[in-house]
Amino acid sequence: MRDKALPESEVMRILEKTRARDYNYDRFFSTMCTLPHPIAVRAHDMFLETNLGDPGLFPGVARIEERVVEMLGELLGCPDASGYISTGGTESNIQAIRAARNESGRKDGNIVVPASAHFSFDKIGDLLCLDVRKAELDESLRVDLSSVESLIDDKTVALVGIAGTTEFGQVDPIEGLSRIALDRGIHLHVDAAFGGFVLPFLKKKFAWDFSVPGVSSITIDPHKMGMSTIPAGGLLFRGQECLCALETETHYLTKARQASLTGTRSGAAAAATYAVMMHLGREGFAEMVDYCMDLTHHLLKRAERIGVLPLIEPIMNVVALKVPSPAQVREELMKRDWHVSMTREPNRALRLILMKHMTKENIDLFLEDLKAILAK
Ligand code: 0PR
Protein backbone atom coordinates (compact mmCIF):
# COMPACT_ATOMS: atom_id res chain seq x y z
CA MET A 1 0.00 0.00 0.00
CA ARG A 2 1.07 3.61 -0.56
CA ASP A 3 2.45 5.66 2.36
CA LYS A 4 0.73 8.87 1.35
CA ALA A 5 -2.88 9.53 0.53
CA LEU A 6 -3.95 9.86 -3.08
CA PRO A 7 -6.69 12.44 -3.80
CA GLU A 8 -10.12 10.98 -4.49
CA SER A 9 -10.15 12.44 -8.01
CA GLU A 10 -6.88 10.66 -8.81
CA VAL A 11 -8.13 7.30 -7.47
CA MET A 12 -11.34 7.69 -9.46
CA ARG A 13 -9.37 8.51 -12.60
CA ILE A 14 -7.42 5.26 -12.22
CA LEU A 15 -10.61 3.30 -11.62
CA GLU A 16 -12.35 4.81 -14.64
CA LYS A 17 -9.40 4.06 -16.89
CA THR A 18 -9.25 0.49 -15.62
CA ARG A 19 -13.00 -0.03 -15.95
CA ALA A 20 -12.80 1.07 -19.59
CA ARG A 21 -10.66 -2.01 -20.28
CA ASP A 22 -13.62 -4.28 -19.47
CA TYR A 23 -15.66 -5.42 -22.44
CA ASN A 24 -19.29 -4.39 -22.87
CA TYR A 25 -22.36 -6.53 -22.25
CA ASP A 26 -23.85 -5.77 -25.67
CA ARG A 27 -21.11 -7.92 -27.25
CA PHE A 28 -21.53 -10.84 -24.79
CA PHE A 29 -23.08 -14.10 -25.91
CA SER A 30 -21.03 -16.00 -23.35
CA THR A 31 -22.50 -14.89 -20.05
CA MET A 32 -25.41 -16.07 -17.95
CA CYS A 33 -25.43 -12.70 -16.18
CA THR A 34 -26.80 -9.48 -17.55
CA LEU A 35 -27.06 -5.79 -16.73
CA PRO A 36 -29.09 -5.66 -13.53
CA HIS A 37 -32.45 -3.92 -13.62
CA PRO A 38 -32.06 -0.23 -12.56
CA ILE A 39 -34.29 -0.74 -9.51
CA ALA A 40 -32.01 -3.59 -8.39
CA VAL A 41 -29.03 -1.26 -8.58
CA ARG A 42 -30.82 1.36 -6.47
CA ALA A 43 -31.83 -1.18 -3.85
CA HIS A 44 -28.32 -2.66 -3.83
CA ASP A 45 -26.79 0.76 -3.10
CA MET A 46 -29.33 1.40 -0.35
CA PHE A 47 -28.48 -1.78 1.56
CA LEU A 48 -24.74 -1.94 0.85
CA GLU A 49 -23.54 -1.89 4.45
CA THR A 50 -26.23 -4.16 5.93
CA ASN A 51 -25.06 -7.52 7.26
CA LEU A 52 -27.34 -10.54 7.10
CA GLY A 53 -24.73 -12.42 9.09
CA ASP A 54 -25.96 -10.61 12.22
CA PRO A 55 -29.67 -10.27 11.46
CA GLY A 56 -30.66 -8.94 14.91
CA LEU A 57 -28.88 -5.70 14.02
CA PHE A 58 -30.63 -5.52 10.67
CA PRO A 59 -34.18 -6.81 11.16
CA GLY A 60 -35.34 -4.74 8.18
CA VAL A 61 -33.18 -6.44 5.60
CA ALA A 62 -33.57 -9.81 7.37
CA ARG A 63 -37.32 -9.53 6.73
CA ILE A 64 -36.61 -8.66 3.10
CA GLU A 65 -34.57 -11.85 2.73
CA GLU A 66 -37.45 -13.85 4.26
CA ARG A 67 -39.86 -12.29 1.78
CA VAL A 68 -37.58 -13.14 -1.15
CA VAL A 69 -37.45 -16.76 0.04
CA GLU A 70 -41.26 -16.78 0.30
CA MET A 71 -41.66 -15.33 -3.20
CA LEU A 72 -39.16 -17.82 -4.66
CA GLY A 73 -40.95 -20.65 -2.84
CA GLU A 74 -44.28 -19.54 -4.36
CA LEU A 75 -42.67 -19.40 -7.80
CA LEU A 76 -41.29 -22.93 -7.39
CA GLY A 77 -44.43 -24.61 -6.06
CA CYS A 78 -43.68 -24.59 -2.32
CA PRO A 79 -44.81 -21.40 -0.52
CA ASP A 80 -43.45 -22.62 2.84
CA ALA A 81 -39.98 -23.50 1.56
CA SER A 82 -37.02 -22.56 3.74
CA GLY A 83 -33.75 -21.15 2.45
CA TYR A 84 -31.61 -18.07 2.07
CA ILE A 85 -29.98 -15.76 -0.44
CA SER A 86 -26.49 -17.03 -1.13
CA THR A 87 -23.67 -15.67 -3.25
CA GLY A 88 -24.65 -17.72 -6.30
CA GLY A 89 -25.14 -21.15 -7.81
CA THR A 90 -21.90 -22.56 -6.48
CA GLU A 91 -22.68 -21.75 -2.85
CA SER A 92 -26.27 -22.95 -3.21
CA ASN A 93 -25.15 -26.26 -4.72
CA ILE A 94 -22.49 -26.73 -2.02
CA GLN A 95 -25.01 -26.09 0.74
CA ALA A 96 -27.73 -28.29 -0.75
CA ILE A 97 -25.36 -31.25 -0.97
CA ARG A 98 -23.89 -30.50 2.45
CA ALA A 99 -27.40 -30.57 3.94
CA ALA A 100 -28.16 -33.87 2.18
CA ARG A 101 -24.90 -35.37 3.41
CA ASN A 102 -25.46 -34.16 6.98
CA GLU A 103 -29.00 -35.53 6.96
CA SER A 104 -27.74 -38.90 5.75
CA GLY A 105 -25.20 -39.01 8.60
CA ARG A 106 -22.53 -40.38 6.21
CA LYS A 107 -19.03 -38.99 5.83
CA ASP A 108 -17.86 -41.36 3.07
CA GLY A 109 -20.69 -41.01 0.60
CA ASN A 110 -21.15 -40.29 -3.08
CA ILE A 111 -23.45 -38.17 -5.22
CA VAL A 112 -24.78 -38.98 -8.68
CA VAL A 113 -24.87 -36.00 -11.05
CA PRO A 114 -25.48 -35.74 -14.81
CA ALA A 115 -22.35 -35.61 -16.99
CA SER A 116 -23.63 -32.15 -17.97
CA ALA A 117 -23.43 -30.84 -14.38
CA HIS A 118 -21.79 -27.48 -13.72
CA PHE A 119 -18.20 -27.66 -12.46
CA SER A 120 -19.35 -26.51 -9.02
CA PHE A 121 -20.12 -30.19 -8.34
CA ASP A 122 -16.44 -31.05 -8.78
CA LYS A 123 -15.64 -28.45 -6.12
CA ILE A 124 -18.29 -30.03 -3.92
CA GLY A 125 -16.70 -33.47 -4.24
CA ASP A 126 -13.41 -31.99 -3.15
CA LEU A 127 -14.78 -29.87 -0.31
CA LEU A 128 -17.15 -32.43 1.17
CA CYS A 129 -14.99 -35.50 0.40
CA LEU A 130 -17.74 -37.07 -1.66
CA ASP A 131 -17.24 -39.25 -4.72
CA VAL A 132 -18.91 -37.44 -7.65
CA ARG A 133 -20.35 -40.03 -10.05
CA LYS A 134 -21.30 -38.74 -13.48
CA ALA A 135 -24.26 -40.30 -15.22
CA GLU A 136 -24.37 -40.52 -19.01
CA LEU A 137 -26.56 -38.33 -21.18
CA ASP A 138 -29.02 -39.53 -23.81
CA GLU A 139 -29.00 -38.26 -27.40
CA SER A 140 -31.03 -35.20 -26.41
CA LEU A 141 -28.34 -34.40 -23.78
CA ARG A 142 -30.62 -35.12 -20.82
CA VAL A 143 -29.41 -37.43 -18.08
CA ASP A 144 -30.03 -41.11 -18.76
CA LEU A 145 -32.09 -42.59 -15.92
CA SER A 146 -30.73 -46.11 -16.25
CA SER A 147 -27.20 -44.72 -16.02
CA VAL A 148 -28.23 -42.85 -12.83
CA GLU A 149 -29.68 -46.03 -11.34
CA SER A 150 -26.56 -48.02 -12.15
CA LEU A 151 -24.40 -45.53 -10.20
CA ILE A 152 -26.49 -45.44 -7.01
CA ASP A 153 -25.45 -47.56 -4.03
CA ASP A 154 -25.97 -47.56 -0.25
CA LYS A 155 -23.55 -44.67 0.13
CA THR A 156 -25.36 -42.31 -2.26
CA VAL A 157 -26.36 -39.21 -0.29
CA ALA A 158 -27.86 -37.15 -3.12
CA LEU A 159 -29.00 -37.22 -6.73
CA VAL A 160 -28.77 -34.11 -8.86
CA GLY A 161 -30.95 -33.09 -11.80
CA ILE A 162 -30.46 -29.91 -13.82
CA ALA A 163 -33.25 -27.66 -14.99
CA GLY A 164 -31.41 -25.61 -17.59
CA THR A 165 -27.96 -27.08 -18.14
CA THR A 166 -25.09 -24.63 -18.35
CA GLU A 167 -24.06 -25.68 -21.85
CA PHE A 168 -27.31 -26.63 -23.57
CA GLY A 169 -30.17 -25.22 -21.49
CA GLN A 170 -31.54 -28.76 -21.38
CA VAL A 171 -33.95 -29.96 -18.68
CA ASP A 172 -33.28 -33.35 -17.11
CA PRO A 173 -36.18 -35.79 -16.55
CA ILE A 174 -36.86 -34.57 -13.01
CA GLU A 175 -39.98 -36.70 -12.57
CA GLY A 176 -37.98 -39.84 -13.37
CA LEU A 177 -35.24 -38.78 -10.96
CA SER A 178 -37.91 -38.05 -8.35
CA ARG A 179 -39.29 -41.59 -8.63
CA ILE A 180 -35.80 -43.03 -8.10
CA ALA A 181 -35.12 -40.66 -5.19
CA LEU A 182 -38.40 -41.49 -3.42
CA ASP A 183 -37.95 -45.18 -4.02
CA ARG A 184 -34.43 -45.17 -2.54
CA GLY A 185 -35.03 -42.49 0.09
CA ILE A 186 -32.33 -40.20 -1.36
CA HIS A 187 -32.24 -36.38 -1.43
CA LEU A 188 -32.91 -34.99 -4.92
CA HIS A 189 -31.38 -31.59 -5.61
CA VAL A 190 -32.39 -29.63 -8.71
CA ASP A 191 -29.86 -27.15 -10.05
CA ALA A 192 -31.97 -24.45 -11.67
CA ALA A 193 -29.35 -21.72 -11.22
CA PHE A 194 -30.10 -20.54 -14.75
CA GLY A 195 -33.44 -22.16 -15.59
CA GLY A 196 -35.20 -21.17 -12.37
CA PHE A 197 -36.17 -17.77 -13.70
CA VAL A 198 -36.85 -19.08 -17.22
CA LEU A 199 -38.92 -22.26 -16.96
CA PRO A 200 -41.87 -20.75 -15.01
CA PHE A 201 -42.31 -18.20 -17.81
CA LEU A 202 -42.00 -20.38 -20.92
CA LYS A 203 -45.10 -21.27 -22.94
CA LYS A 204 -44.10 -24.94 -22.81
CA LYS A 205 -44.46 -26.34 -19.28
CA PHE A 206 -42.03 -28.70 -17.59
CA ALA A 207 -42.39 -30.64 -14.33
CA TRP A 208 -39.19 -29.83 -12.49
CA ASP A 209 -39.81 -27.81 -9.29
CA PHE A 210 -41.27 -28.62 -5.82
CA SER A 211 -44.51 -29.71 -7.47
CA VAL A 212 -42.56 -32.90 -8.24
CA PRO A 213 -42.79 -34.80 -4.92
CA GLY A 214 -39.22 -36.15 -4.72
CA VAL A 215 -37.51 -32.76 -5.16
CA SER A 216 -35.90 -31.81 -1.83
CA SER A 217 -33.93 -28.67 -2.75
CA ILE A 218 -33.49 -26.18 -5.58
CA THR A 219 -30.80 -23.72 -6.64
CA ILE A 220 -32.19 -20.62 -8.41
CA ASP A 221 -30.01 -17.59 -9.09
CA PRO A 222 -31.41 -14.07 -9.12
CA HIS A 223 -28.07 -12.83 -10.56
CA LYS A 224 -28.60 -14.82 -13.76
CA MET A 225 -32.08 -14.57 -15.33
CA GLY A 226 -33.47 -12.85 -12.21
CA MET A 227 -32.15 -9.42 -13.31
CA SER A 228 -30.65 -8.81 -9.88
CA THR A 229 -27.15 -7.70 -8.93
CA ILE A 230 -24.17 -9.99 -8.34
CA PRO A 231 -23.83 -11.81 -5.90
CA ALA A 232 -27.40 -13.12 -5.61
CA GLY A 233 -28.01 -16.85 -5.43
CA GLY A 234 -31.06 -18.66 -4.11
CA LEU A 235 -31.16 -21.89 -2.14
CA LEU A 236 -34.51 -23.40 -1.22
CA PHE A 237 -35.46 -26.53 0.69
CA ARG A 238 -38.81 -28.24 0.91
CA GLY A 239 -39.69 -27.78 4.61
CA GLN A 240 -37.45 -26.61 7.43
CA GLU A 241 -35.39 -29.71 8.35
CA CYS A 242 -32.63 -29.37 5.77
CA LEU A 243 -31.85 -25.84 6.87
CA CYS A 244 -31.39 -27.21 10.43
CA ALA A 245 -28.86 -29.69 9.04
CA LEU A 246 -26.72 -26.71 8.02
CA GLU A 247 -26.87 -24.76 11.25
CA THR A 248 -23.98 -24.03 13.57
CA GLU A 249 -24.15 -22.27 16.93
CA THR A 250 -23.04 -18.67 16.74
CA HIS A 251 -22.66 -18.06 20.53
CA TYR A 252 -22.30 -14.28 20.65
CA LEU A 253 -24.33 -12.99 17.68
CA THR A 254 -27.87 -11.64 17.74
CA LYS A 255 -29.15 -14.95 16.43
CA ALA A 256 -28.11 -18.18 18.12
CA ARG A 257 -27.75 -20.31 14.98
CA GLN A 258 -26.57 -19.70 11.42
CA ALA A 259 -27.23 -21.83 8.33
CA SER A 260 -25.43 -19.81 5.63
CA LEU A 261 -21.96 -20.78 4.40
CA THR A 262 -20.51 -17.29 4.69
CA GLY A 263 -20.64 -15.40 7.99
CA THR A 264 -20.69 -11.71 7.21
CA ARG A 265 -22.82 -11.20 4.11
CA SER A 266 -24.22 -8.04 2.64
CA GLY A 267 -28.00 -7.70 2.37
CA ALA A 268 -27.56 -5.64 -0.81
CA ALA A 269 -28.21 -8.43 -3.31
CA ALA A 270 -31.19 -9.73 -1.31
CA ALA A 271 -32.68 -6.21 -1.36
CA ALA A 272 -31.92 -5.91 -5.08
CA THR A 273 -33.69 -9.24 -5.71
CA TYR A 274 -36.69 -8.15 -3.63
CA ALA A 275 -36.91 -4.86 -5.56
CA VAL A 276 -36.78 -6.43 -8.99
CA MET A 277 -39.23 -9.24 -8.14
CA MET A 278 -41.74 -6.80 -6.66
CA HIS A 279 -41.33 -4.33 -9.52
CA LEU A 280 -41.51 -6.76 -12.45
CA GLY A 281 -43.93 -9.32 -11.03
CA ARG A 282 -44.69 -12.46 -13.02
CA GLU A 283 -45.82 -10.31 -15.96
CA GLY A 284 -42.51 -8.50 -16.18
CA PHE A 285 -40.48 -11.71 -16.01
CA ALA A 286 -42.69 -13.35 -18.64
CA GLU A 287 -42.06 -10.36 -20.90
CA MET A 288 -38.31 -10.57 -20.34
CA VAL A 289 -38.23 -14.32 -21.04
CA ASP A 290 -40.37 -13.76 -24.18
CA TYR A 291 -37.84 -11.19 -25.36
CA CYS A 292 -34.91 -13.60 -24.80
CA MET A 293 -36.76 -16.44 -26.57
CA ASP A 294 -37.55 -14.13 -29.48
CA LEU A 295 -33.81 -13.38 -29.76
CA THR A 296 -33.13 -17.13 -29.61
CA HIS A 297 -35.50 -17.88 -32.51
CA HIS A 298 -34.10 -14.96 -34.48
CA LEU A 299 -30.57 -16.30 -34.03
CA LEU A 300 -31.60 -19.83 -35.04
CA LYS A 301 -33.42 -18.65 -38.17
CA ARG A 302 -30.60 -16.39 -39.34
CA ALA A 303 -27.89 -18.93 -38.49
CA GLU A 304 -29.65 -21.55 -40.59
CA ARG A 305 -29.46 -19.17 -43.57
CA ILE A 306 -25.66 -19.32 -43.37
CA GLY A 307 -25.71 -23.09 -42.94
CA VAL A 308 -25.14 -23.17 -39.17
CA LEU A 309 -27.42 -25.48 -37.15
CA PRO A 310 -27.95 -26.08 -33.44
CA LEU A 311 -26.77 -29.26 -31.74
CA ILE A 312 -30.21 -29.68 -30.16
CA GLU A 313 -33.42 -27.71 -30.57
CA PRO A 314 -33.10 -25.13 -27.76
CA ILE A 315 -35.62 -25.22 -24.93
CA MET A 316 -34.51 -21.96 -23.43
CA ASN A 317 -32.24 -19.08 -24.41
CA VAL A 318 -29.08 -21.20 -24.54
CA VAL A 319 -27.91 -22.28 -27.99
CA ALA A 320 -25.09 -24.64 -29.00
CA LEU A 321 -24.14 -24.07 -32.64
CA LYS A 322 -22.32 -26.68 -34.70
CA VAL A 323 -19.34 -25.15 -36.50
CA PRO A 324 -16.08 -26.67 -37.73
CA SER A 325 -13.11 -26.01 -35.34
CA PRO A 326 -15.14 -24.18 -32.68
CA ALA A 327 -12.06 -23.12 -30.68
CA GLN A 328 -10.54 -21.36 -33.70
CA VAL A 329 -13.83 -19.77 -34.66
CA ARG A 330 -14.24 -18.53 -31.10
CA GLU A 331 -10.80 -16.95 -31.21
CA GLU A 332 -11.53 -15.22 -34.51
CA LEU A 333 -14.81 -13.93 -33.09
CA MET A 334 -13.00 -12.55 -30.06
CA LYS A 335 -10.67 -10.60 -32.35
CA ARG A 336 -13.84 -8.93 -33.62
CA ASP A 337 -14.97 -8.24 -30.05
CA TRP A 338 -17.66 -10.95 -29.96
CA HIS A 339 -17.60 -13.08 -26.84
CA VAL A 340 -18.95 -16.58 -27.13
CA SER A 341 -18.06 -19.67 -25.14
CA MET A 342 -17.82 -23.38 -25.96
CA THR A 343 -19.40 -26.60 -24.83
CA ARG A 344 -17.32 -29.56 -23.67
CA GLU A 345 -16.24 -32.65 -25.57
CA PRO A 346 -17.74 -34.86 -26.86
CA ASN A 347 -20.29 -32.22 -27.91
CA ARG A 348 -17.95 -29.38 -28.77
CA ALA A 349 -19.88 -26.42 -30.21
CA LEU A 350 -20.13 -22.66 -29.93
CA ARG A 351 -22.27 -21.78 -26.94
CA LEU A 352 -24.42 -18.65 -26.98
CA ILE A 353 -26.74 -17.32 -24.30
CA LEU A 354 -29.32 -14.81 -25.40
CA MET A 355 -29.70 -12.50 -22.43
CA LYS A 356 -31.73 -9.34 -21.96
CA HIS A 357 -28.79 -7.13 -22.98
CA MET A 358 -28.64 -8.63 -26.51
CA THR A 359 -30.43 -7.17 -29.55
CA LYS A 360 -31.49 -8.52 -32.96
CA GLU A 361 -29.28 -5.88 -34.59
CA ASN A 362 -26.22 -7.23 -32.80
CA ILE A 363 -27.17 -10.83 -33.59
CA ASP A 364 -27.26 -9.89 -37.29
CA LEU A 365 -23.87 -8.16 -37.08
CA PHE A 366 -22.47 -11.16 -35.21
CA LEU A 367 -23.73 -13.57 -37.89
CA GLU A 368 -22.19 -11.45 -40.65
CA ASP A 369 -18.84 -11.82 -38.90
CA LEU A 370 -19.40 -15.53 -38.27
CA LYS A 371 -20.21 -16.05 -41.93
CA ALA A 372 -17.02 -14.26 -42.99
CA ILE A 373 -14.93 -16.32 -40.55
CA LEU A 374 -16.45 -19.61 -41.71
CA ALA A 375 -15.84 -18.70 -45.36
CA LYS A 376 -12.09 -18.41 -44.69
N1 0PR B 1 -25.33 -24.21 -11.86
C1 0PR B 1 -25.51 -23.92 -13.16
C2 0PR B 1 -26.52 -24.72 -13.93
C3 0PR B 1 -24.78 -22.89 -13.75
O1 0PR B 1 -24.95 -22.63 -15.06
C4 0PR B 1 -23.86 -22.15 -12.97
C5 0PR B 1 -23.02 -21.06 -13.56
C6 0PR B 1 -23.71 -22.50 -11.61
C7 0PR B 1 -24.46 -23.54 -11.09
C8 0PR B 1 -22.76 -21.76 -10.70
O2 0PR B 1 -23.23 -20.48 -10.48
P1 0PR B 1 -22.29 -19.31 -9.95
O3 0PR B 1 -21.32 -19.01 -11.06
O4 0PR B 1 -23.25 -18.21 -9.68
O5 0PR B 1 -21.62 -19.80 -8.73
N2 0PR B 1 -23.11 -20.84 -14.91
C9 0PR B 1 -22.32 -19.89 -15.64
C10 0PR B 1 -21.15 -20.61 -16.31
O6 0PR B 1 -20.32 -21.21 -15.64
C11 0PR B 1 -21.80 -18.76 -14.81
C12 0PR B 1 -21.18 -17.68 -15.60
C13 0PR B 1 -21.77 -16.43 -15.64
C14 0PR B 1 -20.00 -17.83 -16.29
C15 0PR B 1 -21.20 -15.41 -16.34
C16 0PR B 1 -19.43 -16.83 -17.02
C17 0PR B 1 -20.02 -15.60 -17.06
O7 0PR B 1 -19.45 -14.56 -17.78
O8 0PR B 1 -21.10 -20.59 -17.51
Tell me the total number of β-strands: 12
Domain count: 2
The sequence of SSEs as H and E is: HHHEHEHEHEHEEEHEEHEHEEH
Largest sheet: 7 strands, mixed
Distance between the termini: 50 Å
Bound compounds, please?
Answer: ligand 0PR
CATH class identity of the largest domain:
Alpha Beta
Low-confidence stretches: none
User: What's the CATH topology name of the largest domain?
Assistant: Aspartate Aminotransferase, domain 2
Number of contiguous helices: 11
Shape: globular
By CATH, the superfamily of the largest domain comes out as: Type I PLP-dependent aspartate aminotransferase-like (Major domain)
**How do the strands of the widest beta sheet line up side by side?**
1-7-6-5-4-2-3
Q: Rounded to an integer, what's the Rg over CA atoms?
A: 22 Å
Helical amount:
25-40%
Brief characterization of the structure:
The chain contains 11 helices and 12 strands. The protein has 376 residues and is an alpha/beta fold.
